[in-house]
Write a structure and sequence with these properties.
By secondary structure, the chain is of the alpha+beta class. It contains ten helices and 34 strands.
């Protein structure tokens, strides 16, 4: 790792693939700039001088469509590119036979149908059938060729009928009877072979010559740019923790770049872009035709109606002459620039590329390490050789970041040389960031066998102007490697949490409880109450571990109970994630465990009538809350009093009705007893007693009836008064998180 960090780039050579022997794009213009993206494309710039009126570019067949989409030619002498031309492959006219055959799709009938008009010889079981293919049509209902045990009722198989024209005779042959097919046209057979080679990937690296016509036959100073497929660049990171695990940590990053373009990159300006630009393939090289409606008969049947001419008179109009077009000349500045380019070209090296520019002094940037000082002499000290300062000095990151259309681009400040078929590791970040080492628990634990154990993690804030793309991160602490993790995309000014090891000495457990439904009054409109219903989930997290002299914190990734749940009380230090909360549980010094309760609840809206049995309780609770204004309280208090009074009347009336039912039952029982002893002469005393009791029941029932009538009358009066007050009532309860 130290050796990799000593220079701007360390190159690993390798043999290029035999298919990549030809360059992606080959021309006389030297390659000057390469911009690589994370979505599998690369932007290339070339510049140089061209004599004559044409620029020729040889492009690999597999890249020609991307080049046609993005080709840009700039003549610094204010000349113009007139046209771009290229030859069509002869085989493109023979693609119809295989156009509908994708991998795992199609059949022989489709191939023959694509060869209509082609002369063939069909060899069948009955002999040879020569002719030109007219059509191939599907037929149904043919019995299977080899039915098992002679059973012809196994069903039928679809077949196809091939019709050929032999002289003036049409002959038909079932496709299942054909044993082989001979193509009489040898050129067509060769083209089909080439088309199959292309489908199999053979020949895709052949080159096609693209010619750009230029205005004038003089010398042109050109800049050529295009986009073609290229391997994505890959980031790798290192975080070196400070001695106490908290404070200024060292963040280093490298980009691994692969050159599979088929040509060497020598002294090129390189940029690496992070982000998600959209890129796709689109065939611009293959000719395509479009079926059109035949309107010939419509045109033939047209006939103009004879109309009588008319004469009109008006003042003569003066027609202005056409404007004179401006001359297409150009400024003298580009000519001077062109002359400068011509002088610079004389000083180019043998490779055709300009010599690399040398910077007198590199501008300093926030977080950028200065030029490395002379290497210190080794000492006999027991201090670790691989510490934060040593690793910082070992790497020189010289890149400048800028935002382009929402993407971050790393512009390397030194030119790069990368032979074809090689990879290089370029340092792009070497700076200090605020970081800490802590613990993170995810539900399910840290893996098999570590179900209740948290991770050791590094948390740092990306204070650099760079967007950190997903990639591996090596963690160093105490002078050595302690683990590694994998990051998602980390935007600038955002924080990242990277697990790099498991902590088996700490256990994290949880328990949950779902509570019943609570109600809270939200609004009273006329006689309707809008009510929020709350479902609550209470989760208790418990952290158990060793006793430490200083407190330590475990970050618990608490999953959200649902999309409509919210925290009742937000624990201090809680952070929001997409589908969870990051809740800190701190174990005090000299303690073995700590617990934290997380309460979530979800409100749902419903409506109740003022006459609902829960309405008086909700209204009274709203008044007792003490959060209403004096005006609202004055407006609401009489309504609450009336509703409570009606409720008391209803309660009393319900009790009286229950008494009536009981009196009626006892009176009916007494009447049955009297009926039973009516003819018994010895039961006169008992009859007298029962008659007296029956009279008492009747008297009590009459009193209950009068009281019920009075209550019904009072209730009606209160109800009318309440409904009158509700006509204009619209009261909203104060916002609160407590149900």
């Amino acid at each position: 790792m130290l050796a990799l960090g000593l220079g701007l780039a360390t190159t690993t050579s390798g043999c290029a693939s035999s298919r990549a022997a030809l360059a992606t794009a080959q021309t006389d213009l030297g390659l000057t700039r390469v911009v690589l993206y994370r979505n599998g494309i690369g932007y290339f710039e070339r510049s140089g001088a061209v004599d004559g009126d044409a620029l020729r570019i040889k492009v690999r067949r597999d890249q020609v469509d991307d080049l046609l989409k993005s080709l840009t030619v700039i003549d610094r002498g204010s000349g113009k590119a007139l046209s771009v031309s290229m030859p069509l492959d002869p085989e493109t006219w023979a693609n119809a036979a295989l156009a509908r055959l994708g991998p795992g799709e199609g059949d022989l009938a489709k191939v023959l149908d694509g060869l209509r008009g082609t002369e063939v010889v069909l060899r069948t079981k009955r002999g040879r059938v020569p002719g030109r293919i007219v059509m191939v049509e599907t037929v149904a209902g043919r019995p299977p060729a080899n039915p098992s045990d002679g059973d012809a009722s196994r069903g039928t198989e679809d077949d196809a009928r091939v019709t050929v024209l032999d002289g003036d005779t049409l002959r038909t042959v079932l496709l299942s009877d054909i044993e082989d097919i001979t193509l009489v046209d040898g050129d067509l057979a060769m083209q089909l072979h080439r088309r199959l080679d292309a489908s199999a990937g053979e020949g895709m690296f052949q080159q096609i010559e693209v010619e750009v016509r230029l205005a004038g036959a003089r010398r042109h100073a050109l800049v050529l740019s295009y986009v073609v497929a290229a391997p994505m660049w890959k980031p790798t990171y290192r975080v070196v923790l400070p001695e106490r695990g908290r404070g200024q940590a060292l963040l280093q990053a490298w980009a691994v770049v692969d050159n599979t373009s088929g040509e060497d990159w020598r002294d090129v300006t390189m940029s690496l872009t992070s982000g998600e630009p959209i890129a796709f393939e689109y065939d611009l090289h293959t000719p395509r035709t479009v079926d059109r409606a035949d309107l010939t008969e419509t045109a033939v049947r047209r006939q103009a109606r004879v109309a009588l001419g008319e004469t009109s008179f008006a003042e003569e109009e003066t027609i202005a002459p056409p404007p004179v077009m401006a001359d297409g000349g150009y400024d003298a500045a580009p000519e001077a620039e062109f002359a400068e380019e011509m002088r610079a070209e004389k000083s180019m090296g043998a490779g055709g590329s300009a010599a690399p520019r040398r910077m007198a002094a590199k501008p300093s940037m926030p977080g950028m390490a200065p030029s490395p000082p002379p290497a210190p002499q080794p000492s006999a000290s027991s201090e670790p050789a691989v510490d934060l300062d040593a690793l910082r000095r070992s790497t020189q990151a010289n890149a400048r970041a800028q935002t382009v259309s929402g993407m971050t681009r790393y512009d390397l400040q030194e030119r790069v040389t990368l032979p074809n078929g090689s990879a290089t590791m370029v340092a792009i970040i070497n700076t200090e960031v605020e970081a800490e080492e802590t613990f993170l628990f995810r539900p399910g634990g840290a893996g098999v066998g570590y179900d209740a154990n948290p991770y050791r993690v590094v948390r740092f804030k990306n204070t650099t102007p760079f967007v950190l793309e997903p990639g591996p991160i090596s963690i160093y602490a105490g002078g050595s490697f302690v683990g590694e993790g994998l990051s998602e995309t980390v935007g600038t000014r955002t924080s990242a949490t990277i697990p790099f090891a498991v902590e088996p000495a700490i256990l994290v457990t949880s328990s949950s409880r779902h509570s019943g439904r609570d109600l809270r009054l939200v609004r009273v409109v006329r006689g309707v109450l809008e009510v929020e219903t709350y479902n609550r989930v209470e989760t208790t997290w418990t952290v158990r571990g060793r006793s430490e002299d200083e407190p330590y914190t475990v970050l618990v990734r608490h999953p959200k109970a649902g999309s409509d749940y919210a925290l009742v009380e937000r624990p201090s230090g809680t952070e929001d994630l997409l589908d969870a909360y990051l809740v800190p549980v701190t174990v005090p010094a000299k303690s073995l465990e700590a617990s934290l309760q997380v309460i979530e609840q979800t409100p749902g809206r419903t409506t109740l009538s003022i006459w609902d049995g829960q309405a008086p309780f909700l209204l009274e609770k709203l008044l007792l809350g003490g959060e209403l204004t004096a005006e609202l309280r004055t407006q609401l208090q009489p309504i609450v009093d009336l509703r409570m009074e009606i409720g008391r009347i209803d309660t009393e009336a319900e009790g009286l009705r229950a008494q009536q039912v009981e009196l009626d039952r006892r009176a009916e029982e007494t009447r049955r007893n009297l009926e039973a002893i009516k003819k018994d002469p010895a039961a006169s005393a008992l009859r007298s007693k029962l008659n007296q009791r029956l009279a008492e029941f009747t008297q009590q029932g009459d009193a209950l009836g009068r009281r019920l009538v009075e209550l019904q009358s009072r209730r009606l009066e209160k109800k009318i008064e309440l409904e009158d007050r509700l006509q204009t009532l619209d009261v909203r309860a104060p916002a609160t998180t407590d149900p």
